[in-house]
Amino acid sequence: MYAVGNGHYNQSAIGKMARLGMHAGVADLCVPARRGPYSGLYLELKSARGSLSDNQRKFAEDVTVHGYQFEVAHSTEEAIFKISRYLFEYTDNSGPCACHPSRRAPREVLTEAAVHWAPIAP
After folding, report:
1. Is the dihedral of CA 17, 44, 89, 111 positive or negative?
2. What are the pLDDT digits (tens) for 11-36?
3. Could you tell me if residue 122 is inside a domain?
4. Which residues of 14-102 form beta strands (DSSP E)?
5. Residue 91 banded pLDDT, cuts 50, 70, 90
6. For residue 93, what are the domain limits?
7. Which entry of 43, 48, 51, 114 is 20 to 30 Å from 120 by CA?
8. pTM score over 0.70
9. Within-domain flag for 73
10. Is residue 6 part of a domain?
11. Count of domains in the chain?
């Protein structure tokens, strides 16, 4: 999993980042692991009342067309749960995860894990 280095920058930094290939709307986190029918997971992190921008909605459409799952999380707990669910949901013989039985986790464990993780301080 990796975080995309996006955020609020001054105009000169924005220009330099655009020249280096940064695009507006890219999700905050990416899990580049194939599971079931998906090539990976993109997760956008939002505040409790936050919503997607037009660029983020366009990004979500683009990646889902190409076989990725796109999710939005409005809390740390929700983000942990969605990542865990993505990683452990496809554990039958329908996807690549089937060859790794140690990655299997019952739904109760995922729910419990989401409750016990603490947010990381900035």
Report:
1. positive
2. 677 677 677 767 778 999 999 999 98
3. no
4. 29-31, 41-45, 69-73
5. low
6. 2-116
7. 51
8. no
9. yes
10. yes
11. 1
What lies within 8 Å, CB to CB, of 92 at 6+ separation is: 98
List the alpha helices (DSSP H) in the chain: 11-19, 54-65, 76-89, 107-116
The pLDDT of 41-68, averaged and rounded, is: 94
CA distances 36 to 2, 12, 31, 67, 106, Å, are 20, 42, 14, 10, 17
Which 3 state secondary structure label does DSSP give 12?
A: helix
- CATH label of the domain that carries residue 53: 3.40.1350.10
What pLDDT score does 29 carry? 92
Tell me which residue has tokens 């290939």. Answer: 21
Query: Could you tell me if residue 44 is inside a domain?
Result: yes
Q: What does the longest C-alpha to C-alpha distance in the chain come to?
A: 50
